[in-house]
């Protein structure tokens, strides 16, 4: 039986630009929750491409698929990238031993930091777990405090602990379900929600909400590494998990494993809001995986940036790999992708509006590949980090240093208050387009950004806005 909740179906994102231009001309905000102009436009223009006669699939089959997806997961993946493709990563660190003397030239360092620096790629969370488990000796004595300070000459013996199983339990979490039938589910994920359970984020996840929504049981699966100890590391952008792996399967942007997180086809960062598609059966998962592999999935994002790029539109074709200076983030690494160091990554962008005297911009992004933190890393490379992105340079101080010199003093107090309230990168997955796995019809779904994004955009527009047009850019 087909379910439809608050659906917004658009056959092209050109309509999205009309919302921006029309509303700004009329001093209205298309993202504001009470922006009747924008919502009216959506309601009068939208149409449905829902499957007319979807093949019925029983709940028991969906339950079986999702539960198998959980319990088969071998996971020690620290991101959405395949473990054997992550720069400097092992697929599983369990039992790895370190016997080493701290260099005499080394000053005092935290034990967890030093061990993490000596075992390439292991997460600090994993090291901390090993220390707390009594598996680390300093000068022959068990040391179970992660903050213990080591110094030159100390002898450290460490064994990395096994991954602890994670449990995903159904939770009655309100979900903004934009589209649902027997085969796929499209959810508008709020900011600050983690997609799937991970160390430090065991509850309140999108997966838990989906288990409850589909009336599925509690399931357990092995733990996994995360990209970093920061909260932004729990979910990474736009990479694929498939239930299948053929002997010859290889893809630079789609990650395939022998199992899958429950129905999750791709992920969004914890701080990113917007659209995410979930497969409800193996056929849908395999079909969507193939669409991601062929880059036929339409993914459109909008962001508010610190600064305006030198070119108002462009294509960023720069590989992405782990930042050698900061292990909790990724980085754009110019040059040819290097084996084990970086991977091919391409983003298209265009400035929709210049805001607040040219100190900020509303930027649209379209992804040709799906890498960990791709938009955030490419934005940083362009010199326009996303506002609110503390990991990639879009700090509050950075935002104010750009905003205040280009805005009248009368706005400075309001700007300081506005910026101080930003608690996540200003990035929203606006549009998702894909071919329905069973009917073959094209679905184009758009969801406007949430109130926090809308408020920032509205306040910056109130200072000054300059529209930018790009005829036939895409």
Automatic annotation (TrEMBL):
Keywords: Isomerase, RNA-binding. InterPro entries: PsdUridine_synth_cat_dom_sf, PsdUridine_synth_RluA-like_CS, PsdUridine_synth_RsuA/RluA, RluA_PseudoU_synthase, S4_RNA-bd, S4_RNA-bd_sf. The keyword Isomerase applies. Gene3D superfamilies: Pseudouridine synthase (3.30.2350.10), RNA-binding S4 domain (3.10.290.10). It comes from the Eukaryota. The keyword RNA-binding applies. Residues 109-174 form the RNA-binding S4 domain. CDD domains: PseudoU_synth_RluA_like, S4. This is RNA pseudouridine synthase 2, chloroplastic isoform X1. The lineage of its organism: Eukaryota, Viridiplantae, Streptophyta, Embryophyta, Tracheophyta. The gene is LOC107018054.
């Amino acid at each position: 039986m087909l379910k439809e909740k608050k659906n917004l179906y658009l056959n092209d994102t050109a309509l999205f630009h009309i919302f921006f231009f029309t509303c700004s001309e009329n001093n209205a905000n298309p993202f504001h929750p009470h922006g009747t102009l924008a919502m009216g436009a959506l309601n009068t223009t939208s149409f449905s491409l829902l499957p007319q006669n979807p093949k019925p699939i029983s709940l028991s089959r969906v339950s079986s698929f999702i539960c198998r997806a959980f319990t088969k997961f071998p996971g020690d993946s620290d991101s959405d990238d395949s473990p054997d493709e992550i720069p400097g990563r092992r697929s599983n660190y369990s039992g790895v031993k370190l016997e080493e003397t701290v260099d005499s030239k080394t000053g005092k360092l935290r034990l967890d930091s030093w061990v993490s620096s000596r075992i390439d790629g292991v997460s600090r969370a994993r090291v901390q777990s090993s220390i707390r488990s009594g598996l680390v000796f300093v000068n022959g004595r068990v040391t179970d405090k992660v903050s213990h300070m080591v110094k030159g000459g100390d002898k450290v013996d460490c064994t990395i602990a096994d991954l602890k199983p994670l449990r995903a339990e159904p939770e009655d979490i309100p979900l903004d379900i934009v589209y649902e039938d027997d085969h796929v589910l499209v959810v508008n994920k709020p900011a600050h929600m983690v997609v799937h359970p991970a160390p430090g984020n065991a509850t309140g996840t999108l997966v838990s909400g989906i288990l409850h929504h589909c009336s599925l049981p509690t399931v357990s699966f092995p733990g996994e590494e995360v990209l970093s100890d920061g909260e932004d590391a729990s979910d990474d952008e736009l990479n694929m998990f498939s239930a299948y792996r053929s002997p010859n399967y290889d893809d630079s942007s789609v990650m395939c494993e022998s199992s899958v997180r429950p129905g999750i086809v791709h992920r969004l960062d914890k701080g990113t809001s917007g659209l995410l598609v979930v497969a409800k059966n193996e056929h849908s998962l395999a079909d969507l995986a193939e669409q991601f592999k062929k880059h036929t999935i339409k993914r459109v994002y909008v962001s508010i940036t610190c600064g305006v790029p030198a070119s108002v539109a462009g294509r960023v074709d720069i590989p992405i790999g782990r930042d050698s200076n900061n292990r909790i983030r990724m980085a754009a690494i110019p040059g040819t992708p290097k084996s084990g160091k970086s991977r091919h990554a391409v983003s298209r962008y265009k400035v929709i509006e210049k805001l607040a005297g040219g100190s900020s911009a509303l930027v649209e992004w379209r992804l040709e590949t799906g890498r960990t933190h791709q938009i955030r890393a490419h934005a940083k490379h362009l010199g326009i980090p996303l506002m609110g992105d503390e990991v990639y340079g879009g700090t509050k101080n950075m935002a104010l240093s750009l905003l205040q010199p280009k805005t009248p003093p009368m706005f400075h107090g309001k700007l300081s208050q506005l910026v101080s309230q930003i608690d996540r990168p200003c990035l929203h997955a606006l549009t998702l387009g894909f071919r329905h796995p069973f009917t073959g019809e094209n679905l184009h779904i758009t969801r406007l950004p949430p109130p926090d994004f809308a408020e920032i955009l509205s306040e910056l527009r109130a200072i000054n806005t300059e529209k930018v047009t790009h005829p036939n850019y895409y």
